[in-house]
Each structure stands twice: as structure tokens, then as C-alpha cells.
Design goal:
The chain has 71 residues and is an alpha+beta fold. The protein is built from two helices and two strands. The protein is 39% helix and 14% strand. A two-stranded parallel ribbon has the order 1-2. The longest helix has 24 residues, at 47-70. The two termini are 26 Å apart.
Amino acid sequence: GAERIDVPVTLAWGSLDRLVSPPRRAPAGWTTRVLRDCGHIPTWDDPAQVSELLLEASASAGSVASTWSEL
């Protein structure tokens, strides 16, 4: 299950999504984010907001990756 994932995870969903509901509880260590005013296809609704989230998540993952490379 999800508890076996040992890499950074960012889980996002649109605030107006009628197909997927936010999880009641995200696994420990996962980052969650609601994309405001987005439906089921946030890349269509607000590509700038999605790209901002991707850049933030990859920057965070990059700092973790540099730590891993030192091991």
C-alpha cells in the first residue's frame, strides 16, 4: 500500500472536482493541496496554478534527492 512509498509525494485535487473527492486522510509525510477553482482537469482550468505546484513539489523533491545522493 501507500505506506511502502518512500519518495516525496504531493497529492492535489481540484476544489470543484465532482468526480474525485479529497482523501479523508493522506498517508503520513505526503503533502496535500487543493487547487482553487479547478475541476477534474486542473491543467485545463488553471495551467499556471498546476505548473506552480509542480515546480514547488519538484524543488522539494530535489532537496530530498540531494540528501539521498550523499548516502
